[in-house]
Amino acid sequence: MATEACGEKGQVQLLGGSLSSFVLRVRIALALKGIDYEFIEENMQNRSQLLLQSNPVHRKIPVLIHNGKPVCESMIIVQYIDEAWDTKAPNLMPKDPYDLAIARFWAAFVDDKLVPCMRRVFAGHGEQLQKEAEDLVTNFHLIEEALRTNSCFSGKAYFGGDKIGLLDIALGGMLAVLKGLEKATDTVIIDPEKMPLLSAWMDRFCQSNGVKEVMPDPAKQLESLSARRARLASPAGN
């Protein structure tokens, strides 16, 4: 839960952008844990000195600052939050080593496979867009199959079981952009008839307490994506 005043007695700050999928992951984790924090909106065209000092290697968001110490990279931050506030429910990471390994494997799949595919769909037009969208759908089908057959996920409300966990946050952080991307490119990525389990999970996740409160405004997300695609398509953007 973001507050205008410094939360947790000024100990927690989040540098980010309100429409960023990666920042959204962190905001979901903080909300689920009930951690108050100060949200500092960054202008990535004019990065603040605080961001440059906090993340001098990649110079990007999100950055969580806890007790003056910065933590970078969204999924590293999510795991840090779970461990630093381990007495606060819910536990975001499975306690069983095997279940944790599986969750981390699929979280890496999201970043290594789905995110690059989404970026190519975003930049694509015509036949290229169609091909990239097909590749993205193929990768989502792998997650649908995991929901159907993997004992860690099958028959459960979330990837984390009865409650949202690490993989839910990894994939769920991408949903606002994914929905905007479908509209901006006039494509269907998650077809409820072809991916019923994933589609049902998406609806459940987006309506969950702690998630729906921090989800970006769909109209603003679509406006931002459409504007960026238009710039890419213009001669000046090439």
Automatic annotation (TrEMBL):
Gene3D superfamilies: 1.20.1050.10, Glutaredoxin (3.40.30.10)
Domain of life: Eukaryota
Keyword annotations: Transferase
Coiled-coil positions: none
Database matches in PROSITE patterns: GST_CTER, GST_NTER
UniProt domain GST C-terminal: residue ranges: 96-236
Domain GST N-terminal: 10-89
Reactions catalysed according to its record: RX + glutathione = an S-substituted glutathione + a halide anion + H(+)
UniProt enzyme class: transferase
One cellular component (GO) term of this entry: cytoplasm
Entry's Gene Ontology molecular function annotations: glutathione transferase activity
InterPro entries given in the database record: Glutathione-S-Trfase_C-like, Glutathione-S-Trfase_C_sf, Glutathione_S-Trfase, Glutathione_S-Trfase_N, GST_C, GST_C_Tau, Omega/Tau-like, Thioredoxin-like_sf
EC number(s) stated in the UniProt entry for this protein: 2.5.1.18
Single GO biological process annotation from the record: toxin catabolic process
Family as reported in the entry's similarity comment: Belongs to the GST superfamily. Tau family.
Record-linked PANTHER family: GLUTATHIONE S-TRANSFERASE, GST, SUPERFAMILY, GST DOMAIN CONTAINING, GLUTATHIONE TRANSFERASE
Protein name: glutathione transferase
Organism: Picea mariana (Black spruce)
Record gene name: Sb52
